[in-house]
Amino acid sequence: MAMVEVSGVRKAYGGRTVVDGISFTVDEGEIFGILGPNGAGKTTTVECVEGLRVPDAGTVRVAGLDPVADHDRVTRILGAQLQESELQPKLTVGEALELYAAFYPEPADRSALAERLGLTASLTTRFAKLSGGQKQRLFIALALIGRPRVVVLDELTTGLDPRARRDTWQLIEEIRDSGVTVLLVTHFMEEAQRLCDRIAVIDGGRIAALDTPSGLIRRSTASTVISFIPSQPLDGAELAALPRAASVATEGGRVVINGTDETVNAVITLLARRGITARQLRVTDATLDDAFLDLTERF
Ligand SMILES: Nc1ncnc2c1ncn2[C@@H]1O[C@H](COP(=O)(O)OP(=O)(O)OP(=O)(O)O)[C@@H](O)[C@H]1O
What we know:
single chain, alpha/beta, Rossmann fold, 2 domains, four-stranded antiparallel sheet, binds adenosine-5'-triphosphate, ATP-binding
């Protein structure tokens, strides 16, 4: 079942279109990622899903409900992560949980939620004194306090150190495992690749691609990376002209070519023809990072 349906949504600010006909559905129980460069229209899109913004055209449904017309019912189904500025610095973790629990008719058990998010020891700590990771865990707890069926997490791990980020990823997976659908806005390829079942790549207010992480890598023109140190210098233009070569770079004597299997075969043939040996030859799958650059540049 589709938990979120976005269909032909458009939004302009002061005559400038920033969301230009976006459509996607998020199935119940999946982690759906929205990935895109700065200013692509990601936040505007999810704010339409949350009912915080009204689309100029198109429709949004959350569990079949209109987030604007059925705002109260949608608020009970959808948990949104707060922005930092929305919490009083003097509020303690326990008080914040109590305050937000009061908004819902059947809130989650506060102490169980605090325990699950590793906040039990910080219940009496004021918001201003929490670390970045603790703040993010509190925001997740507040998004879950109403026992939502879907949560929207917008750039949740920005500013966290690598360990806190990985801990947060684990939490997001646990949320999904508990049956909650997750709509995740992120800048981090590694995060999207690790967590998301499907990803919509948004660029310039439009969907540039929508697929599983491995599907996105496959569909990019740069799904394979071949790199080696040639025994003699090679002409970059000649390499760039090889079949399906998407990019060619030289990094400290090492030639790095993004392309497809066809490119790999062509490189090997070229080297053999020239009698050039390739030292430290490596052929690897491209990462989502490579695919993202390729997909957003092409769009
Ligand atoms: N209330 C507003 N009034 C005018 N312009 C806005 C408003 N909100 C957003 N914008 C502009 O709309 C564009 C899309 O913004 P949005 O926040 O949706 O992008 P984003 O993909 O989430 O970007 P980022 O990754 O930088 O957060 C940006 O150019 C932004 O400056």
